[in-house]
Structure formats: C-alpha cells, structure tokens
Amino acid sequence: MSSSATNTATYKFNHTMLRVRDHVKSIKFYEEVLGMKKFHESSGSDFTNYFLAFPGGFGDKADASDEEKAKVQLNREGVLELCHNHGTESDPSFKGYVSGNEDEHKGFGHIAVTVDNLEAAVKRFDELGVKFKKRPEEGRMRHIAFIYDPDGYWVEILAQQRP
Amino acid sequence: MSSSATNTATYKFNHTMLRVRDHVKSIKFYEEVLGMKKFHESSGSDFTNYFLAFPGGFGDKADASDEEKAKVQLNREGVLELCHNHGTESDPSFKGYVSGNEDEHKGFGHIAVTVDNLEAAVKRFDELGVKFKKRPEEGRMRHIAFIYDPDGYWVEILAQQRP
Questions:
Q1: Per-residue pLDDT tens for B31-43?
Q2: Is B139 left (phi over 0), alpha (psi -120 to 50) or beta?
Q3: Which of A40, A53, A80, B21 has the most CB atoms within 10 Å of its CB?
Q4: Which residue of A has its CA nearest to B103?
Q5: A16: helix, coil or strand?
Q6: Co-location of B38 and B108 in the same domain
Q7: How close A62 gets to chain B, by Cα (Å)?
Q8: Do both A87 and A40 map to the same domain?
C-alpha cells in the first residue's frame, strides 16, 4: 500500500467519550458495577482522560510493554473514554452534565452493555444498589433494562442471547 | 454456571446510540465516508433504529441466518445505533440535536474511529467534502482530527499506530 492509500475496511470504532463530574465515582461504577478495567489515562493542564474497556482483545498481559498496550488499545473497539475536567467533583456551582435524553437537549442517547444473563445481572445490580431508569419488567421491552451511571448517562443492559 | 450467576468478564460494550435527524444522510455518511455497514434495523411506531459497524467480527457471510447474525451482533463491540424519529428530516420546526459539546449542554463528547493512515484518511475526507472541526495540522494535537457527522456530532479520527 502506498503512503497515500487508506482502506476503510481496516477502520475501527475505537471509543466513545463521555464527560464525568467525578472520575473516582465513575471509574468505580464502570469497574465494580459493570466490570470494565481502566487501562490508560492521559492528562492536560486541567483535565484527565481515563480509558476503560472490558477484558478480552487486550491481552491483559502484566508484562506487555507500553508500546504493545498502545497498539492493542488503538486497534480494538469498545473503549470508553471518561473525560474529567479537574475540580468539577468539588464545585458546588457545577450544574452537572446532560445525559442527552432531556427534552431540551436531546442528542446522544445511551451506551449499551450486553451481558451473559440479564436476570442475574439485574439481581446483582440490585445488590449493588444501582439505580434503574427502566427495569426489565417495566414497559413492553422485557429483554432490556436501562441503568444510570453516576452522571445520569443511560446504560442499556441486554442479553447476548436473544430469549 | 447456575442460572443465577453472571460473570462481568463476559460483558461487552456493544453499542453507542445517537439520534439523527435524517437517517438517509447519516447512513450515507457512516457507510460511504467512514466505511461502516448497516447490518440491522428495527422499528417502533414512530422511530427506526439502524445498527452499523465496521466489518470484521461479523463474519459478513451472505448466507448467515438471522439467528447467527443476531448472535454476532450482540457479542461484538463497536456497534453504532442511529435512532431516527420519523419526520424530523422534513420538519422545518425541528431544531436539530445537540452534539454534547455546546457550552449550555455538555455531556457526551464524541465517538472515535482509528484509521490505518491519518494523512491518507484526511486527504480522502477532503476529496469527499467532509467538514472538519479540527484538522490534524491545527492546534497542538497533530496526531488527531475531528470531523462532523451530518447532525454535528464530533467524530475523532486518529491513527492505529502511534507516530
């Protein structure tokens, strides 16, 4: 391939970025409630971006070099980037971020996580005190749930196997 | 594993949902400019959700059964769901969706696509008339670009290999 060529078949939908008010709470949620792992972070003068993903595709090798990790990181899909603007977590005047689902500023809707067993996942979320936007038994769509992340973003939960 | 067990290590960050004003324009953009493929759609009474992804992981088998496709679809990552509320594309009073980057309603930031060759990808985008939020040569971060999708959502473009 010449240096001027590009092949879109090699492109990857690498990540989705959400701003978060309190990175500690958000990383705790995505790691402890959902099972992602933070694998990288990078900072500017007044912000830090945290990169998380589910295991697999990573080669979670403890001995991987930074170069190896970076290569995997940029070649995989399903990465979540959490952008923390320093200070929002302790600023009482900070109004919070919009989820994208409010009437006045609709746009982004949600991210979705597929799970091995919806009923068991929901039971575990209940044990962990997770807040639901919609439980599976509510409404007509019994095969999906929506939970809130710490900023109020919607996370759809659905089974990997159709019922 | 018992029926009540769930293992978060099997979870997948399956998709990200964005509302779009005009599904025809948006699907054209994500397919023809970025190289994704629409592989599924589902409708309610007044909306249709379109699911797109980059090839690979799919097994783009022409003879795959719907069941096989559904299984792959729910077990992979990097899916983009575009939600079209019927009629917005021809409604002059429709104000459009927010990108999540406006001062008054910040939240979601962007999706990111990694490419084989940033310079070549940018050249191709220019040939296709794509609008840039930030070209690689603008600002300090020379290794990334941001383009606009038809609704004004930001799509970060960065190389799969660090320079």
A1: 999 999 998 899 9
A2: left
A3: A53
A4: A97
A5: strand
A6: no
A7: 17
A8: yes
The three-class DSSP label of residue B21 is coil
Domain count, chain B: 2
**Residue A84 shares a structural domain with residue A109:** no
Q: What is the DSSP string of A79-91?
A: EEEEEEETTGGG-
CA distance A78 to B100: 20
Q: Can you state the percent helix, strand and coil of chain B, rounding each to 5?
A: 25, 30, 45
Instruction: In whole angstroms, give the CA distance from residue B154 to residue A81.
Output: 14
Hey, are the CB atoms on B78 and A75 less than 8 Å from each other? no
**pLDDT tens, residue by residue, A74-98:** 989 999 999 999 999 999 999 999 9
Contact B54, A13 (CB under 8 A): yes
Domain boundary pick from A51, A70, A92: A92
Establish whether A138 is an annotated binding residue. Answer: no
CA distance A41 to A49: 5
Q: CB distance B115–A6 less than 8 Å? A: yes
Write out the residue range of the structural domain in which residue B26 sits: 12-92
Interface test with B, best of A6, A29, A37, A88 (most B CBs within 10 A): A6
